[in-house]
Amino acid sequence: MVRRLHALQKTSLTITAIVLLGCVYLAFSNIWYSPAIEARLVTPQGDPVAGAIIVAGWNIEGPWNGSPRGQLAVAEVLSDKDGKFNIPAWGPRRAKEGHIRIDEPTLRIYRPGYLPLVIKNYEDVPMRSASHILQFRLQGKNIVLQPFQGPLPEYEVALTALLDSLSNIYSQQGPGTCYWRDTPRILLALQDLKWQLSPLGGGNSLRKAYEYANTKTPPQCGDAFEFFRDFKRP
C-alpha cells in the first residue's frame, strides 16, 4: 500500500512537472526579438536614394485561421544622404494571440519619383513561424529602386501594392493600435500625392492622412486630424 502511494505521488509529481514545463514553453514560445535592420537604397546605377520613407511592420498571425491580429512592432525611418537606413532593434515582445511568420518583417519603401517596393522577408516559403530572433534577409545589402517613367496619373496605379500593404496595418483593430501615429511621414507624403493628382482627375485611391486612422481609434491615441495638422515635417 505504501509503495503504491509513493508510486502515485511520483506519478503526480511527474505530471505536475510536465504541465509546468509546458506552461513555461507556451509562455516563452511566443517571445520575439528583432536586431537592428540596416540596408541601403540605390538607383540601378548605384547612386544613393536619399529621403525615402521605409515602414516596417511585423504582423501577428492568429493561431487558428491565420487572420491578422495586429502588429507586434511598427517603425518608420528615412534613408540618409548615402541611401542608408536603420530600423532600431526591439524586443523581447510577446505576441499574446498568435505568432510571427517566417516572411516577416514586411518593408514598404516609398520615394516620390520611384516605383514603391513592398518587401517580404522571404518569398514563396511554407507557412510556418519564424525563428524567435527575426533576422532580415537583406541585412547590409543594397536595395535597388527603379525610377518611375510615365505620366503622373499612371503613378497612382503603380502604388496599388503599397496601398494594399499599408491598409493591412491601419485596418487592424486592437487595444492601443495607433499605427498611424507611428508612420506619419508616409501618410503625409501620400496625401501630398493626392493633391497633385486631384487636378488631373486622379488620387481617388489615396486618402487624407488623418483618414487612415481607424474610426474606432482608442481615446489614448488622440485626434488624428489634429495630430497630422500639427506634425512637424523635417
Query: For the record, what is the CATH homologous superfamily label of the largest domain?
Result: Carboxypeptidase-like, regulatory domain
* Alpha plus pi helix count: 6
Largest beta-sheet characterization: 5 strands, antiparallel
Portion in strands: 15-25%
How many strand segments?
A: 10
Number of separate structural domains: 2
What CATH architecture of the largest domain do you see? Sandwich
Helix content: 25-40%
User: What is the CA-CA span between the terminal residues?
Assistant: 80 Å
CATH class of the largest domain: Mainly Beta
Overall mean pLDDT score? 85
Q: Write down the overall geometry.
A: globular
SSE string, helix = H, strand = E? HEEEEEEEEEEHHHHH
User: Which residue ranges are poorly predicted, with pLDDT under 50 across at least 5 consecutive positions?
Assistant: 12-28
What is CATH's topology name of the largest domain? Immunoglobulin-like
Radius of gyration using CA atoms only: 23 Å
Decide which structural class fits the backbone.
alpha+beta
